[in-house]
Amino acid sequence: MDMKRFHEKNMHTALQKIREELGDNAVIISSSQNSTGVEVVAATDYEAVENSDVTPNIEFYEKSSIDNMQVASKSLADRHNIDIEPVVHEIDTSAIQKEISQLRAIIESQTELISWNKLIDQNTVARRLLQKLSISGFGFNLSKLLLGTVKSVNDFDSAWSQIEVRLKDKLSMTQECVIESGGIVALVGPTGVGKTTTIAKIAAQYAMQHGNSDIAIISTDHFRIGAHDQISIYGSILNVPVVTANDESELHKALKIVKNKKLVLIDTAGLSQRDARVQEVMQALSKLSKDLITYLVVSANSQLCVQKEIINNFRSDNINGVVVSKTDEASQIGGVLTALIEQSLPLAYETTGQRVPEDIVRPNQDEILTKALDYGERFGSMESLHSTELYSELVENV
Questions:
Q1: What is the CATH number of the domain that holds 321?
Q2: Which of 170, 194, 227 is the last residue of a domain?
């Protein structure tokens, strides 16, 4: 009997090797799986199989090899008048399905981009619309979506009016106004976005309308050096009590101390959006009070990809809205509006500078979109010379 043992990484490779070395008439005697792949014993002399010390044990590890091995086992069974029941082992197809899904997504993406590129090349109105959205900072995917709704409109002004309407519909605003109604309000977000200053502005504006006797501030920022001192200075200026809390237990105690106040502002620690402690902070806040209002503070002068990452990593069921800070430092604010629209988060406040209490507003859709377009025209003119070419290059190379 010409019998050989093959060690390969998978059954498909093993069958190819067997066919090359033993020919098409080779029969699989046994197979087994190990840490490096599969071990397969095959033979060409059927008559000597019965005298072999190898026990026929047909196992199958790849669906692509099942038909070949079933033929082999049937040939062996017929020749020796024995029953061989192949034991079919189910393989995990999740990896294969994932690759197929990825391939499908690539094909669909390429098809979509070809259509998109054709639209931009052939439609002058579409090119102008894309350029205007681009210099205002609106994201590529949102721009594609908006242009897709007006691709049959041949007049620029009419098409732009429709896009403005759709942007207003997509951008939502919070219903509550804590400066007027009060509440328990926590501000969260990464380091340096202006949470502490925003708290001072909200407290000051509330004090101007209602007095300062019903305001309290809780500081939980024990990571940043001088954080307690900064908020304490604001508290001293406003004649508002500031309570510190260094952990979740102290936070619950602090909230009990100020439970009779109509406006309680919680200043949380500034953490990188990639810091594992972000989820700990969000979970602690979720247990604090069913009446808690949580605002995520996002800087308008950061990149769209960073803004999306911040929203994704701080996102939780108890985020009530977003405070867009530092619009006075940004050359484009279409990016942060894109992030809010795509993540379906409402806008609560906009901060426009460092002055307390003046530089905080609660804009409506018209005001913030007008500002986004105005910024694009004022600060995006240099980029506008190249924006269409950049987008076309992006379309061609994605």
A1: 3.40.50.300
A2: 170
